[in-house]
Design a protein that fits this description.
This protein is α/β, with parallel strands linked by helices and about 250 residues long. The chain has 6 helices and 11 strands. It has one domain: HUPs (Rossmann fold, 3-Layer(aba) Sandwich), CATH 3.40.50. The strands form 2 sheets. A 9-stranded mixed sheet has the order 9-8-7-10-6-1-4-5-11, with helices on both faces. Strands 2-3 form a two-stranded antiparallel ribbon. The protein starts with a strand and ends with a helix.
Length: about 250
């Protein structure tokens, strides 16, 4: 294998407190800590491990978004990837649009493997990887919890309801990562400094000539109602009676 392309997304940090905008149009992102999507961070880590084992020669990191996404790309470069591409746009990018953009980049870069997180924590759509594989007509392995490379391709193990399922993919292929695949490494100061010298290309979205038409619209976003306090019951009979009163049984 020679080249791996990894897609990463800048999202609200999973430790940050989520606030809904006053007009209900979405989640507030101003003055909120942003970071790399956790599932994408696992994808970056896995690509680096593949290279460290001698199964890859180059790792390209891609992100779609505003200038601020450069910070996310620099984080990936500091982890140990080789170069980065920012597809610059301020437009809302829905899953199919992201897949179209990644398809265009895949055709330009000709990677042997494209790795993505299984979903982004801001939308939880879990669609882009599958759409990308369909657009490229490549085999796909989703929710990967283990990868093993062979001369002919890669074996992908994934968790299913009944246990574990292992499938074999011929390359090129698309893989999406699950939480159990690995534990991302911490960034060292020397690598953070080195990352500033690694190439980061910024290309305007318009130059790719891809369709980013929105296919759905968010009508309203609201915070969940606060849960009320619990009720302590004395015995099982009282519990059954309460459940009947609530219409549960």
């Amino acid at each position: 294998m020679k080249k791996i392309l990894v897609a990463v997304k800048r999202v609200v940090d999973y430790k940050a407190s989520i606030r809904v905008r006053q007009d209900g149009s979405g989640v507030e992102t101003s003055n909120v800590k942003m970071s790399m999507n956790p599932f994408d961070e696992i994808a970056v880590e896995e690509a680096i491990r593949i290279k460290e084992k001698g199964n890859a020669s180059e790792i390209i990191i891609v992100s779609i978004g505003s200038e601020a996404a450069q910070e996310t790309l620099r984080t990936a470069l500091a982890m140990g990837t080789d170069r980065a591409i920012l597809v610059k746009t301020d437009a809302e990018i829905q899953p199919l649009a992201a897949a179209n953009i990644l398809k265009a980049l895949g055709q330009q870069e000709s990677p042997d493997l494209i790795i993505l997180g299984k979903q982004a924590i801001d939308t939880d759509n879990n669609q882009t990887g599958q759409m990308l594989a369909a657009l490229l007509n490549w085999p796909q392995g989703t929710f990967a919890s283990k990868l093993e490379f062979h001369d002919e391709g890669v074996s992908v193990t994934r968790e299913i309801d009944g246990g574990l399922e292992t499938i074999f993919l011929q390359l090129p292929a698309v893989i999406t990562t699950d939480l159990r695949l690995n534990e991302p490494r911490y960034l060292s100061l020397p690598n953070i400094v080195k990352a500033k010298q690694k190439p980061l290309a910024i290309i305007p979205l318009e130059s790719l000539n891809v369709d980013i038409t929105a296919h759905f619209q968010t009508l309203h976003v609201a915070a969940p109602e606060k849960r009320g306090g619990g009720v302590r019951l004395e015995n099982v009979a009282e519990l059954v009676m309460r459940l009947k009163e609530e219409g549960v049984i």
